[in-house]
Amino acid sequence: MASRTKGKTTIEVGGDGVAVITLINPPVNSLSFDVLDNLKSNYEEALSRNDVKAIVITGAKGKFSGGFDISGFGEIQKGTRKEPKVGYISIDIITDLLEAARKPSVAAIDGLALGGGLELSMACHARISAPGAQLGLPELQLGVIPGFGGTQRLPRLVGLTKALEMILTSKPVKAEEGHSLGLIDAVVPPAELLNAARRWALDIAERRKPWVSSVLKTDKLPPLGEAREILKFAKEQTRKQAPNMKHPLMCLEAVEVGIVSGPRAGLQKEAEVGAQVVRLDTTKSLIHVFFSQRGTSKVPGVTDRGLVPRKIKKVAIIGGGLMGSGIATALILSNYPVVLKEVNEKFLEAGIGRVKANLQSRVKKGRMSQEKFEKTMSLLKGSLDYESFRDVDMVIEAVIENISLKQQIFADLEKYCPQHCILASNTSTIDLNKIGERTKSQDRIVGAHFFSPAHVMPLLEIVRTDHTSAQVIVDLLDVGKKIKKTPVVVGNCTGFAVNRMFFPYTQAAMFLAEHGTDPYLIDRAASKFGMPMGPFRLCDLVGFGVAIATATQFIENFPERTNKSMIIPLMQEDKRAGEATGKGFYLYDDKRKAKPDPELKKYIEKARSMSGVSVDPKLAKLSEKEIIEMMFFPVVNEACRVFAEGIAVKASDLDIAGIMGMGFPPYRGGIMHWADSIGSKYIHSKLDEWSKSYGDFFVPCAFLAERASKGAPLSAPLEQARSRL
Ligand SMILES: C[C@H](O)CC(=O)SCCNC(=O)CCNC(=O)[C@H](O)C(C)(C)COP(=O)(O)OP(=O)(O)OC[C@H]1O[C@@H](n2cnc3c(N)ncnc32)[C@H](O)[C@@H]1OP(=O)(O)O
Question: Domain 3-hydroxyacyl-CoA dehydrogenase NAD binding, which positions (predicted)?
């Protein structure tokens, strides 16, 4: 059992005969076991008291509930909490005690009702909401299923198709949409919420309003044949979109049982499936990702010092290329006024044009109104000089990767920007100490490494040097959150965390191709493993220019463990440089669809002969599992180095960096979490074996060797405070 209580509920009975039960468990009133125990006692009290005619359930401080306390799943997985009897919460408490009670209840929803929170409200006999509240069942995203009756009640309230959409996408709807769907009975201003809910509850008690048990509704359900077709289609889509996960299909089974055999059988099935999914590896990984993602903005020695983020009122961006314009888009979308500086009118116009195009694509997709487009664009000003930099609070430099150019820019910035201004660079490879060499402002120099396209990709690497002040990091963490990025704070080194960890991924792929493994098989194996695309398709997407520039940095900085391959340079000589040129490892049609190219063999054979490599019969016949190991164990090896060097504060930060920056499948929990699921001993032994046959690229690092010798997890914190940060 958990040692301290987490959250509670209170009950207050008014003169009108309404008992108001309030969920209290900051910050999101999650439904911990303690809250649920209290809720049960308060409900029983309300039902037994003669002065109570009806019940209202609400959440403290403007939030109904963020759902079941997710850490409870972790406790069950680790065995530190005894699992409640199957169906105890969803059937015994929520259905038989709450919904079947002889006194009506109304949910008064403000802020959010997610997961178990929405499910609890659906068991009430009506739901009143404040405008804008978020309503959703995001459980699948966490690897679990709606387990408090959501698989049964949501289809009965909003119809099967809409319910499946909400469950399968995990996307919430706003209260207003919920109202039109039939999920919410009335939307009222926040100040009137509680009184409106009290009146509604009394109206039900006195039969002036209908007494609806959602679980017994049938009017929104399609006829059985149609329902089976809808479910069949949903299952097919799910198998296609989430082939490596079991829980979405298990969830659909619970929905199906409810429709075919009735809600009681459905609730029972949901409870059984709910208990099973908690033990799945994919679920453990997704829950790890939930907490790790929130953990990235907790940086020891920085965020625990009571520093308050300063207000960033205006930001300047230098360079309106792909990155600069993407960063500008991300900032204006979150209401930051931005000055975009370029070297001449033509480039400036092109940069502003790119921002415009980014926003226009939202308007086209119906995700932004024309009015909002104009308002957002009005936050962007162009400039050809530094005059407008005199009142900016932050500058982000996003020019080409040229050290002396960057040094000049930072020296200029020091002259023109106010003393408090944060001086950030979006460099992906260059040492920040070198960039700031010609200034005396080292404490306010920081890396703000965005991933392309910057207004879409969710990761922001915040790179600090030994001199960057904690205040600057706190400020940038706050900006990151405001522009809806997941920030990860990392140390200064070539490639920082993401590029450095994942460089061996492409390196290993080139090595295998040169030694006889089919590149298209490699890409297929990577996609099946869960990567958004394989390494060769990725090289085509980023373009060979970028691939060669990055490789050069790595070869210079880590010569002992880089595998030099001529495949890409040879293709580039022939003007095939990736998707932008219509061909690279693949051929591309007008719709950018990739098709394998038989000509590729020619380049690989030539590269092979230039490097004096011959086909290795063993490597030419690798299974998909072996391909994955040979590509990802070197990634694990580099991640270990990054961790051991203190470039990342926590192993879980590397998990998030890889998931958000490279698309490593979240249901594998991130690179370090995945490695630990395999075991340091096995990974070490494989790398060791390959290094003996194939050279230094595979040599396991000292950190990995040490952990393997002890059988210790790779993600365990460093024993000594060796962090450079
Ligand atoms: C049986 C049931 O069907 C199963 C369930 O209900 S599973 C739970 C379903 N609910 C969810 O998936 C919602 C998860 N939470 C969220 O999406 C977001 O936290 C939110 C939209 C509620 C709020 O977002 P935001 O304001 O950005 O705050 P965010 O930083 O994410 O969370 C604030 C804190 O609340 C915690 N938290 C949020 N939801 C939680 C939950 N359901 N359980 C436990 N902790 C939760 C976060 O871990 C974080 O803690 P920290 O401050 O110590 O890092």
Answer: 314-492
C-alpha triplet 691, 696, 701: angle, nearest 5°: 85
Amino acid at 629: E
Answer whether 126's CB lies under 8 Å from 204's CB.
yes
Radius of gyration of the chain (CA): 28
Secondary structure of the chain: what % helix, strand, coil (to 5)?
Answer: 55, 10, 35
Nearest one of 489, 459, 468, 465 to 477, comparing CA atoms? 489
Burial of 137 (0-12, 13-18, 19+ CB in 10 A): buried
| CA–CA separation, 662 and 11 (whole Å) | 48
Structure tokens at 603: 């380049």
296-355 pLDDT tens trace: 999 999 999 999 999 999 999 999 999 999 999 999 999 999 999 999 999 999 999 999
**Closest C-alpha residue for ligand 1 atom 53:** 294
- Ligand 1, atom 26, residue with closest C-alpha: 28
- Tokens, residue 395: 């500058």
660-713 pLDDT, tens digit per residue, is 999 999 999 999 999 999 999 999 999 999 999 999 999 999 999 999 999 999
Angle of helix 498-514 relative to helix 651-662, nearest 10 degrees?
A: 60
Residues in contact with 178: Cβ distance below 8 Å, sequence separation at least 6, in sequence order:
127, 129, 133, 135, 184
Q: How far is CA 215 from CA 142, 156, 219, 420, 633, in A?
A: 25, 7, 11, 59, 49
Residues lining ligand 1, CB < 6 A? Answer: 27-28, 30, 66-71, 112, 114-116, 119, 138-139, 142, 144, 146-148, 150, 294
Single pTM value for the model = 0.94
DSSP letters spanning 648-689: BSSHHHHHHHHHHHH---GGGT-HHHHHHHH-HHHHHHHHHH
Q: Record the tokens describing residue 182, joined without a space.
A: 């039939």
Residue position matching structure tokens 């799943």:
73
Has 272 been annotated as catalytic? no
The rounded Å distance from CA 70 to ligand 1 centre is 7
Tokens (6 digits) for 356: 């415009």
Residue nearest to atom 20 of ligand 1 (CA): 66
CB 138 within 8 A of CB 247: no
Distance separating alpha carbons of residues 18 and 12, to the nearest angstrom: 8
CA 28 to centroid of ligand 1, rounded, Å: 7
How does DSSP assign 37-87, residue by residue? HHHHHHHHHHHH-TT--EEEEEEGGG--B--B-THHHHHHHHTSSPPPPTT
Protein residue with its CA nearest to atom 12 in ligand 1: 138
C-alpha–C-alpha distance, residues 40 and 55, integer Å: 13
- The yes-or-no answer on residue 119 being catalytic is yes
**Beta-bridge partners for 13:** 19
Per residue, the 3-state secondary structure of 625-654, as one string, reads: HHHHHHHHHHHHHHHHHHHHCCCECCHHHH
